[in-house]
Amino acid sequence: MRRTNRYPVNDANSLWQIYKTVSFLKVFKNTLIIIIARYTPFMKVKNWLYRTFLKMRIGDKTSFAFMVVPDIMFPEKITVGRNSIIGYNTTILAHEYLIDEYRVGEVIIGDEVMIGANCTILPGVSIGDGAIVSAATLVHKDVPAGAFVGGNPMKVIYTKDEMEARRKNSLL
């Protein structure tokens, strides 16, 4: 189960009421920073932009590939550990706007995590240290540390123990 806070809305759908949720200036600033960072080829500059202007928590040596999109409304709810890779065109969401409500939740990505290209990470999930997320995966629930997951819906392909056994066998 994802860990999100739920906020009911009345009248129109929640996205129609977006600026009651978060200020226009915050969204505008975040949009500009994200657009600049998406095209910036320098990892240090990209991480500095995210840490300084979006208040994301990012560990040392973490890499955001070309075209990654962190949450535009609540980027401060995203934490990425050290020495992790977020693959090309991945989207990390900390919010969901639905018809009757909107939801907000922390996204925690551990140390030395590999996220493949074109993934979508939903709010309220945690990805454990050393996990691998296959390309084009919808991460809709927590990923155990060291696991290899993939697909839509996401499934565990190998557990940490199975991954370690495979690595050991490949070294023989």
Please, could you describe this protein's structure?
With 172 residues, the protein is of the alpha/beta class. It has a single domain (5-171), classed as 3 Solenoid (UDP N-Acetylglucosamine Acyltransferase, domain 1), CATH 2.160.10.10. The protein has helices at 18-21, 24-39, 43-54, 160-171, and strands at residues 5-8, 57-58, 63-64, 69-70, 78-80, 85-86, 91-92, 95-97, 101-104, 107-109, 114-115, 120-121, 126-127, 132-133, 138-139, 148-150, 155-158. Helix 2 (24-39) runs antiparallel to helix 3 (43-54). It starts with a strand and ends with a helix.
Task: Sum up the structure in keywords.
172 residues, alpha/beta, UDP N-Acetylglucosamine Acyltransferase, domain 1, 6-stranded mixed β-sheet, 4-stranded parallel β-sheet, 4 helices
